[in-house]
Each structure stands twice: as C-alpha cells, then as structure tokens.
UniProtKB/TrEMBL annotation:
Domain of life assignment: Bacteria
Source species: Hydrogenophaga crassostreae
Protein name: Cupin
Pfam families recorded: AraC_binding
Keywords carried by this UniProt record: DNA-binding
DNA-binding found in the keyword field: yes
Gene Ontology molecular function: DNA binding
Length: 141
C-alpha cells in the first residue's frame, strides 16, 4: 500500500475542456487536463499553446517545483537554459531540474506542449539574467 494520499480516477476528453487564457503567460492559452484535481494538488498537467507572437518572451525565471517536464507536441520553442540556447521540437521531452534559470524567448505559431509539474501549486520566481545574450525571436508571418 502506498504511503501517499490516494488519487482519483480521471478521464478528460478534448471536448471536455477548452484552451483558455488566464494562465501564467498572457501570450499562451492553457487547457486543464484535470490532473491537479485528481491528484489533490500533487501534480498539474496542462496543454499550453501559442496565442500571440513572442514579442518579449517569458523573461528570466525559475520554478519552485519538485518535478517539471515539457513534452513538445507541435511546432517548436527556443529556450535559454542558464546560458545555453535550446531548441525544443515536436516529439522532444525536457526535464527541467528544480530551480534552473530559464527563458522561453521564441516559438512557432503552432507551438503546443504538455507540461507536467509537481506540486500543482508550484511558484514562478523572476530571477536575474545570467551573463549571456538572448537572441531575438523569429517574426511571425
């Protein structure tokens, strides 16, 4: 028997939840997958997709989380992880170590990714930029 609190069964079909604004970033839309409720706050999973061009990106930040993965399902995104440019394309999986400084600065109009984070109420903290240059985003046509 697990020492963890039980979780509930959950099935969320595409028609059950819509992409909505109001998440962490105004230029993205978010689709809740019901995992935070089913796990009683232990984990959150949502789909995130581009809603407008990456004019200024996310800015430098880190997350106060125990676990975070991003699975790119469509398109691509460019991140700065510390001082490294990282291209993440459809099919790629990124496991972001807790506390890593990062900046999503560019993405395609069709970008969509699945993000899974624990705990569900993780915090985002703005941080100072490392000593590196962030490239300009690609203009949308």
């Amino acid at each position: 028997m697990s020492e963890f609190a039980p979780t509930d069964f959950s099935l969320v079909k595409p028609a059950d939840t819509a992409f909505k604004p109001g998440g962490l970033r105004d230029f993205f839309l978010y689709r809740d997958l019901g995992i935070a409720e089913a796990t009683h706050g232990k984990v959150i999973a949502h789909l995130v997709k581009a809603n407008s061009p990456p004019d200024s990106g996310t800015g430098w930040h880190r997350h106060e989380a125990d676990f975070q993965i991003v699975i790119m399902t469509k398109g691509w995104a460019k991140f700065m992880y510390e001082d490294q440019v990282t291209l993440v394309e459809a099919g790629d999986v990124v496991q972001q170590r807790p506390g890593i400084r990062h900046f999503l600065f560019d993405y395609s109009p069709d970008m969509e990714y699945l993000e899974i984070v624990s705990p569900a109420d993780f915090k985002t903290v703005d941080v100072e930029a490392p000593a590196c240059v962030v490239p300009e985003p690609t203009p949308w046509k």
